[in-house]
Structure formats: structure tokens, C-alpha cells
Amino acid sequence: MSTPSLARGVLLLARGDRLVVEQVGGAGDDALSTPCSRRTRFQIASISKQMTAAAVLLLAERQTLDVTDPVERWVPDCPPEWRGITLHHLLNHTSGLGHWEDYPLIDLARRTGPVELRALFRNVPPLFRPGARWHYSSPGYVLLAHAVERAAGRPYADFLAAEVFAPLGMTDSFAGAPGDRPDVAVGHSAGRPVPSWDLDMVNVGAGDVWCSADDLLTWLDVPRRGRLLTTASVARMTTAYAPTGSAGTAYGYGCFLGPLAGERAVHHSGENAGFRSFAAWLPDSDRRLVLLTNEDTAALSLVDQVLTAA
Known about the structure:
Blueprint: E1 9-15, E2 18-25, E3 27-29, E4 34-35, E5 42-43, H1 48-61, H2 71-74, H3 87-91, H4 114-122, H5 138-152, H6 156-168, E6 174-175, E7 188-189, E8 192-193, E9 209-211, H7 213-219, H8 221-225, H9 231-237, E10 242-243, E11 250-251, E12 256-257, E13 266-272, E14 275-282, E15 287-293, H10 301-309
Antiparallel strand pairs: 1-2, 1-15, 3-4, 5-9, 6-9, 7-8, 10-11, 11-12, 12-13, 13-14, 14-15
Helix pairs in contact: 1-5, 1-6
């Protein structure tokens, strides 16, 4: 069976430590005629939540914080309605806080400071009491990034750079706006360039990370080989805490746990303006798959097709 192709971006599939599928296509930056490559940096969107979860777990290992801490210990200006919400609830999306569509006054592309952003979060009451059910919440992960900053005593992007990316050798990865960094993909929608969402403030911790395909493949060694985190922290990260409503799928800390191509998998997808992403580790066949594209209309059905064909 032939493997379907990717029009714009990078797709890698490894079995064990051997790369079995490599697809690179299209342009990273049309204006500069720069082709995509395995070193091109893409917004990984909500896969960033895995790095946020890892940051919290690293601080928990150092006994700087605990996942059972109430959110108000680390996040200022919490309203009474948030009483009972813990970092654990934020990590597994059982806090009761809404997702972006529940906060219509927030413009994802407009830079909004943390104080104003938290005020906008406070304006919307929780959807349910903490732990009652599961509801995906990017705002919850923004609050986790604020908690990491306060507990670590330094900016969130700096913490990721020094404590997450550097130890793993992820030299092409960073969080926040790209500035003048090279090899940065431009996002597209239906073939046209689109402006980026704000990654420094509004999407911090929720969808703010850029990675190359090789770096994201390395990232999957965190659950696969226990890199960066202790065995206990990896177990915490990959515990099925809450069913998501999708058949056989639950959420851990920053990851979905459910079947892909008929196998167990630890995975996450992502979608920001102009970008789509997917990363998965399938432990039974020891396969890792990474898909990064700077075209937000790209179909993630390619993932199942590639896993079935290879």
C-alpha cells in the first residue's frame, strides 16, 4: 500500500530508533521561497500542553509545588468560584473552566497582558464543579503557565528553554513569538498566509511552542524512555484520569490516551491559526509519529493512513 503524501510540512514516522517514513513538502515561507525541511520550526499549537505538564511535574519533583495545590496558591486574583480547583484539575481538564469559545471577549491574535487576561477568565463562571467531568480548557493551561512562572521565579519561556528543551537537546525549539529567529514557518489557511495568534501572553502554556519535526520526535522520548522526568512523573503524566467522551480515550496530564490504528497510543493534536500538528507514541509497536504543517486546512486523517500503511 502506498503512503499518502503531505503537501506542505513535515511528517516523520519512526519504529524503534529507525526512521521508516520521511515526508517533507511545500514551502515554509513562500515570500522567501524557503522550502520546508526537518529543521523548519512550526507552531505545535496544543501539543505545547505536554511541555506545560512537564514543567509542572519538574517543579513537583523538586518539591517547589504539588499538583494538589489549589490554583489560588500560585495564581493571583482567583475568584471565589474557583475555590476547589487544583493544579491537577487544570492539568487533566476537569477544572470546570471553559475553552476559548466560552470566552468571546478574548481575541486570540491580540496581545493581552496576564492581569487583563485573568480578569476576562474570571468573567465567565465555571461550567461545573472541579472534578465533576471533563471539558477541554486551554485557559486552564494558561493558568498553569502563570503558576510555573510564579513557582520558578522566572518567565515561562525561559523555564522551558533551560529546564525542558536544553536537557533534551531540542535546539530548534522555543516558546513565544519567534522574533528574528531563522527557519520559522509562516502559517497558511487555504493556501493564503494568515497572521499568528499571540503566543507570548494569550496562548502561553496552551499553544505557544515552536518545534522542528526532529525535535518533536525527540520530545516523544519523554514518555517512551523516561527522559527528563522520573518514572513516577511519567506515570503521572500518562495516567488516564478522565474519559473524554471519545470511545476508549481519556486524558492524562497534557496528553490523550486512546487507540490509534488499533493500538494503544499517547498522543495530542494541535491547531493554531495557520498551523496543524500531531504527535503520537504507540508503545506496542514502539512507533513515534510527528506531523507538522503550516496549512491549517490540512487533514489529520493522514495520520491513520500513514500508520496503517507503514
